[in-house]
Structure formats: structure tokens, C-alpha cells
Amino acid sequence: MSTARPDVIDAGSHIADDGLFGPDSVTWKVSAHPVGGLVGTAAASIQMLYPPVMYMIDQASTFREKPELRARRTAEYVATITYGDVAAAEKAGETLRRIHARCKATDPNTGEEYGVDEPEYLLWVHNALVWTSLRAFAKYGPHVNDDERDQYVVEQHTAARLVGCDLSQLPSTATETDDYMRSMEPKLALSLPALWFKAMVMPKGPSFHPTAMLQDLAAWGSISLMGDAHRRLFGISYGRLRALATETAVKAMLGPLTTPVEVAIPKAREYVDENAFGARRHTVNPVLHAGPEPTAMPES
User: Fold this and answer.
1) Which tens digits make up the pLDDT trace of 91-143?
2) Of 22, 74, 152, 296, which has the fewest Cβ atoms less than 10 A away?
3) Is residue 265, in this structure, part of any structural domain at all?
4) Is 50 domain-assigned?
């Protein structure tokens, strides 16, 4: 897709086109908002409550040993498909599908081996992320109306295609996304491997160190995006007073971090140019950034 770019957004010399979404999309409107950091943690936590997905992460990824690296690679992938040009986005999807094709796990209860690219698992991971994003927009912004919420769901079919989802099985409205997430609740559980994931992402307890306090607040902000069923499975108490305190503090934290779209998107696109998932492209300034030919992103 290539769309007319508003005058306030400079295309720059580093991106060939407007990519798979473009400046008229809801995706561009919302993805530059700092709430995305909370969405990532919350969505991952919810995804891990589906035992087959948790077994896969535990057995076939480096998340447990190198969580920071995995988080960075995930951020690179999301930025590339969202803000990169068409070639970069398609390359990122191709690279991710190739990595996924090699990932296998074994169900400890049945002994059955399966792959990460099973349609049911891809559908769950995708829908959990979209659902969490919609909840984040409603709580913390940016504001989207009902039509834009549905438009966002449909736009994210593009992201689903890149990872190999069956598009005919995807929800097309926010309401359908809610219905899907409710339908999955009986299949969710806090599996044994999920305990280490819970310990990694949940609040660590009271602290007066500024960095630790911010990390703790961010963790509670992610918890605020979960559904009641998800919090119950994790054993998290989240009453009305906790909810009020958390959501008030998170809004105060995110406020100063919010950057106007016309400022945030050019910076995001320059980031993609140097950190594209599936390649290393250095073309912001060919003289200053001359280097070796692009190489494939190593498996994370």
C-alpha cells in the first residue's frame, strides 16, 4: 500500500514507500504511542496462558535465557512490518516464517510433537495481541472511536498474513475479537513452565529505588490490560482501589512520553532503516553508514 503522505510527515530518503499500512491507517495512529510497551508485556503474558504456546516458548526459544534479546528482536520485527517499506516488511515476515518452521515442541502430557506454525496457535497469538492493544487504547490512549477499532482489527490481518495465519479464521471487528478471547478461556491454564515467565514479568514488590518503582508500575500497567480470567489464572489480586491507583499512575507516567505522530513516525522509520528485522540496512546516510552487505537476522 502506498498512500498520500500528510505534509507534516517527511518521507525521508531512507524508506522507499509507505509500507503495508501508511499514514492514513489506524495502525500508524496508535503504534507510535508509548502504551505499546505495556501491550507487549501484557499480550505475551496472556499468550503464555495457552499451554501449547508456553511449551513452545520454554522448549524452542531463548526467551528464558535471553529475555532482553528476545524483546529487542520482537520490537525490531513489529517496527519493521509497521513502519518499514513493503520490501522490508515482506522480508521480515519471510524471515520470521522461516525461523518458525524450524521450531518444534513436545507436549509433556501427551508426548505429541508440534510446530509453532500450527494454525490454532498462530490464531491465538495474533488475536491476543490485537485484543490487548484495543484494551490499551481504551484505557490509556490514543483515542480511537468504534469504527477505528474495527478498522484496526482489519488492518492487523496484514500482520497476521505475514506470520502465516489463515485469514478466513480471523475476527473482523472488535466485538468478534472479544468473542474469540472469551471462547478461549476454558483452554487456558497456568502451566508449570509459565511459572518462570510469571516470575520474570510480574511486579517484584515494594521498592524506593526510582528505576525499580517505574518497572513495578509498568508491570502493574500491563496487568491492568489483562482480563479478569487471565489475572485469576496468574493468581493476581486486582481490586478497584488497585485498579484506580494503577491506571491513574500509568496515565501520569505515559503523558510526558507521548510524542506527536508527525514527530514519532519519521524517527520510527529511521530506526527501521538501521534495525530492519531480517536484514541490516544502513542507508540513512550512505556515506556515513557504508558497510557490509545485508545479512539474514540470526535466529532468536
Assistant:
1) 999 999 999 999 999 999 999 999 999 999 999 999 999 999 999 999 999 99
2) 296
3) yes
4) yes
